[in-house]
Amino acid sequence: MEARYRIVFTGELAPGKKVQTVVPELAAKFRMRKEQAREILLGGAEQTLKHDLPEHKAERYREALEAIGLMVRIERQDTPQEAPETAVPARDERPPMSGATRCPKCGALEVSPVTGVCQACGVVAERYQANQTRPEAADPYAPPQADLTPPPRAETGDDQLQDPVAVGAGRGWGWVADGWSLFRAQPLPWIGALVLFYLILIVANLVPVVGSLASTVLGPMFTGGLMLGAHAQYRGERFSVAHLFAGFSTRPGPLALIGVLYLVLTIAIVAVIMLLMVGLGLGAAAFTPMTGAPFDPAAVDPMATMAPGVVLGMVAVVALLIIPLVMATLFAPALVAIEGVTVLRAFKLSFIGCLRNLLPFLVYGLVAFGLLILGSIPLMLGLLVVIPLLVIAIYQAYRDIYYG
Predict the structure, then answer these.
(1) Contacts of 259 (CB under 8 A, 6+ apart)
(2) Per residue in 79-120, pLDDT tens?
(3) Alpha carbons 106 and 32: distance in angstroms, whole number
């Protein structure tokens, strides 16, 4: 039988390394929560971090951990199924979150019912299960290769999808302020991308019916590309006009499906509103005063005969139908393009994220309204700055709400 080995953390860090800098690196590298990484580093005693490994994999784990700054050693195991002796509490001993399901990768009962992400190992459960059904998936029990190689830039920091969090109302202005720093760094590409975007929409809408339908379906693909561009610039890369079309090569099907669903739901909402108007209009006509003249339904103006309370009620119904749709689609392109979330889950996450941040979005709406007015004053030229800025602010809101 092949010898098996375990990785033991000595409880010490390499000279010059500090806990506050090692914690985020360890958490990002091995897809764990920062609290769990901090518990490991501050345990104060030797801990078995990995066990039952073949020698070559044990060496790779050792190299990865030492690169982060942990002092570790490899020990040969006497029995292949020896349990780990880590000071971190066993996952099943922690109280599970409400509605959580079991992770198909690590077995922890910590898969968030909202994001579908395991809070213990960071894997997207649905995506992991789909990958295991592919023919090329050789060994479903092998540790992921990403754990044994230096993490790419995109996986550093806190770029891990979380349950949508509520932020302070002041962040509504903060999103715009943060967006200004990205816009100011590369103003011309952003202006060029947004001008090209609106030119495409204008040209498309010149074609009757088909053009407007096409622009609705393709809109999320362009928006997803802009979000990918903002994400790339945030991570230190350069934004370019070509990012506008990144959605056509990155998950184009799901992004187009967002537009299709938005179109279908919009048509359904319009149909409901029309039915309400017809019903209320006929009802109002029945209560018109008797004049002795023959009743002519065509001569009745439904809106004129409706009571003010009825009109306000209709406005409220329209808002109750349209606002949730906007909330469900606001972050959907970013969630699909950047994180690869399924479309229906993206709608759910976007709605929850907006619902938990109504006050920040109220502040953002007021700020956006003021900026749009100011941008319109000098012959609309200010909109060349304002519109890209507001688009980047949406990406900053996405970061705040879904990355924490």
Answers:
(1) 216, 217, 218, 219, 220, 221
(2) 544 444 443 343 334 455 556 777 777 777 777 665 676 766
(3) 11
